[in-house]
Amino acid sequence: MQRHMALHDRMGSDGHAGPHVRNSRCNIPHNVSCNLELPVTGRRLTLSRILLYFLVFVCKPLSARAVLPHDFISNNEITTDGKPIDGISRWLADFTRSVVPRNCHSHNDYWRPYPLFSALAAGCMSVEADIWLSDNGLDLLVGHDRGSLSSERTLQKMYLDPLLTILEHQNRQGSFTPFEQARGIFNTRPDMALVLLIDVKTNPTDTWPLLVKQLDPLRKRQFLTRFEQMETSPGVVTKQGIWPGPITVVGTGLLDRATFFDHNHRSYADYETYHDTFIDAPLSTLAQDNNFWRLPDPLSAPLSQLASNSGQLWSADDAYYASASFKTTIGSVRTGFTEEQRNKVRAHVQVARQSGLRSRYWDIPDWPIGYRDYIWKILIEENVDMLNVDDLESAARWGWTQGYLRDVLWMSLVSTYLLSCTVFVLFLFRRLLKRQCRC
């Protein structure tokens, strides 16, 4: 009887185990399970922390490492007026002897601490200046927007006058015959021309003729690359049209074809026989505009046939660069260039060279550093003629960060690992809550 009552106390009225039995059976095994599980989870988290530390601080991507400055630029200070410490003479004597020209374009060059000279020290063969017609219409100001304009920052003071001084020093022997070429900016390659890319920001109808006029001192000394049809004897005209010079002036921005080709004769007496400025052709539509090479014999084809086979012809007699926005024409390459994107770059380069022009992409991403360097590397591999750069020192080193795609894979793996750890911890925490609720 006592045994039956004890058993009844342990069982509920419905025949199930009573509260004493339920608590004793639940708490003891569950506590043991929790005590065993938490140390295991702690060890897993500790191992995860060690692995994460290894991935982040030991195997970090090369693109996250510091970029060393270029010694040549860093060790040669320049005064605030944009000239070398000892003037033009030291620039010519010390700097240009060791500078090797490179196919890099100094984008927005006027933003640099030392406009023109920083680009020359890096060996860039092309510099860019945005020009604005002054309010009185008598001068050309340099700046990115109207808020940055100043009467002291003119195209004449910042670029034209320094270039004239350097070239006069380089060519002290005197004048040249029309068939001779003056020495260029770089002593290491005196035959190389420096491109002065002029981005027109105001009405080109008034801005461009003033630019052509301000080039007159360089023109008189024969320092400009020019197109000229010259007679060797009465009635005999040379076949050569382009005569190289130390400076090649190229117009872009708001400059339109009608203004550039001087239909109103505001810039040149006769553009068709002489001009010493060139235009920036559109690289993205060049294949549609210049399709004259599809003719059986384009060199001997009559001009009328060439014109009918082309929407608007861009030739080396009038244009120099063929440029396009990288982001618009090629697109994002964060996971690497696709074969289609590389083929598009190759097609652009090919059509530019068939037209006698030099290919150039602007609007290239500049961050992260590894991403930018990866794009530079591919563009050079695909023989793009001019590299548009903002970071002169990195471009001058040509020792760019390697392995961007490996870094992309690394970041993807780390992201996947962190996500997996987060999901795993949430799973353990949820399971622990369920067990506690059941108890």
UniProtKB/TrEMBL annotation:
An annotated Gene Ontology molecular function: phosphoric diester hydrolase activity
Record's keyword terms, sorted: Membrane, Transmembrane, Transmembrane helix
InterPro entries in the record: HAT_RTT109-like (IPR051236), PLC-like_Pdiesterase_TIM-brl (IPR017946)
Name of this protein: Altered inheritance of mitochondria protein 6
Keyword Transmembrane applies: yes
Residues spanning the membrane: 408-429
Keyword Phosphoprotein tagged: no
Top-level taxon: Eukaryota
SUPFAM superfamilies noted in UniProt: PLC-like phosphodiesterases
GO biological process, one term: lipid metabolic process
Family: Belongs to the AIM6 family.
